[in-house]
Amino acid sequence: MAESQKSLLEQTQERIKKNAFMIYNHIALESVEKDRAVFRLDIRPESRNPYGLVHGGAIYTMADNATGTAAHTDGRSYVTQTSSLHFLRNQARGTVRATAWVRHRGRSTVLTAVDITGEDGKLLATGEFTFFCVDKTLMDQKAAEK
Predict the structure, then answer these.
(1) I want to staple 119 with a disulfide (CB 3.0 to 4.6 A). Which of 52, 69, 89, 94 is the partner?
(2) Residue 68: what pLDDT?
(3) What are the structural domain ranges in the chain?
(4) What angle do CA 114, 38, 47 make, to 5 degrees?
């Protein structure tokens, strides 16, 4: 693994260790590289909705984290500004993946895209997220005030 890639992976792992909601929902980083990230959810009983299918909130959370991680690969800090996720199909068991990539980087915003696929490779959901660049020091201070 190249040193710059290792550094990006380590930085990403440090950042997502603080993401209690993602961890609580058993969503895991699978890979990260410049402008791209892949997350995985192995469907568990608590991942399912009342119909026995993976919950839309779990899919959305995975999409938000994958796109946010792709945005963060430039070393800056971001928060979700807007999003649009289209649910196309669902599954009850197995693994789902969110593959995210940066479409456009501006000075203060980043447009990302995401595809959520099932075990068979079929598209379960697709969408776009826009992230707003924030001052990391200020955000860290707000987090410390809790």
Answers:
(1) 94
(2) 97
(3) 3-144
(4) 85
